[in-house]
């Protein structure tokens, strides 16, 4: 069985034709339309109709607060035109195939539960660094979504006074890779710098960018410390495209070590690993969600 999976982000839509064992047949990406829900549906329909691979359904990793069972988006996060939308039904009306949706950070966690670092882990946290900071808690080997489907929304954690700092008081701003890249670009006098170039300057230990990166790592380490103290997971996995950078993962570990060493009491220290699937995790997790919700139920 092949499934067409979409990872809809604030900047790009990644999509791929994926087998029901998680193997990716082929994948690509297009820019995310910002105009309206209809423009997004047009892009999805175009990709499906141009496909040369037969699929049994479509599945989506998507920002926001998602009711998986009903295919409903309460709040669209970075895509506000998806607010209060029966998204799965709208896609099904156009494509005439089964459709499932799930929150993007939870898809990353599902990929790790299925074939990745969270397999056989009873208590874990997946933290996805991107435009904001997505997250997911794993309890008894399954996603823990909370009473209001809001569990793991790390971006909304307040770390400073909201009246003084505005949105910069949210962890989603401090932990954002996009904001980190913007700050590095400003420091070196470039407005169109991308993540690859930003990490090149970091790796070269450029004096203009190292203090920015070290401050970023310190902010990340502080909130990881808090999450470890609150939930006490076995493992915390870091995902998102930037997680491929060794200097990021090593930097988080180093910042955490410095933080723990400064505390005068003995504490359980967070164990940090890189997510196995990195950029592909949302696509693979979305497929796992489809299999759980529709593949078995419909006998596909």
Describe the structure.
- There is one protein chain.
- With 300 residues, this protein is of the alpha/beta class.
- It has 2 domains: 2-107 and 279-296, Nucleotidyltransferase, domain 5, CATH 3.30.420.40; 120-274, Nucleotidyltransferase, domain 5 (2-Layer Sandwich).
- Helix content is 39%, strand content 22%.
- The chain is built from 10 helices and 12 strands.
- The chain has helices spanning 37-49, 87-95, 104-115, 162-165, 171-174, 177-188, 195-203, 210-231, 246-261, 281-295, and strands spanning 2-8, 12-19, 24-31, 58-62, 65-67, 72-75, 99-103, 123-129, 133-139, 142-144, 235-239, 272-274.
- Strands 3-2-1-4-7 form a 5-stranded mixed beta sheet, sandwiched between helices. Strands 10-9-8-11-12 form a 5-stranded mixed beta sheet, sandwiched between helices.
- β1 and β2 (12-19) form a beta hairpin.
- α1 (37-49) packs across α2, α3 (104-115) crosses α10 (281-295) and α8 crosses α9.
- The longest helix is centred in the last third of the chain and has 22 residues, at 210-231.
- Keywords: Kinase, Transferase.
- Its EC number is 2.7.1.85.
The name of the CATH topology of the largest domain is Nucleotidyltransferase, domain 5
Q: Please count the helical segments.
A: 10
Main sheet record: 5 strands, mixed
> What spatial order of strands do you see in the largest sheet?
3-2-1-4-7
Residue ranges: pLDDT <50 for 5 or more in a row?
Answer: none
Order of helices and strands: EEEHEEEHEHEEEHHHHHEHEH
* Superfamily (CATH H level) name of the largest domain: ATPase, nucleotide binding domain
Summarize the amount of helix as a percent range.
25-40%
Total number of beta strands: 12
InterPro entries: ATPase_NBD, ROK
Keywords: Kinase, Transferase
Enzyme class: transferase
Family: Belongs to the ROK (NagC/XylR) family.
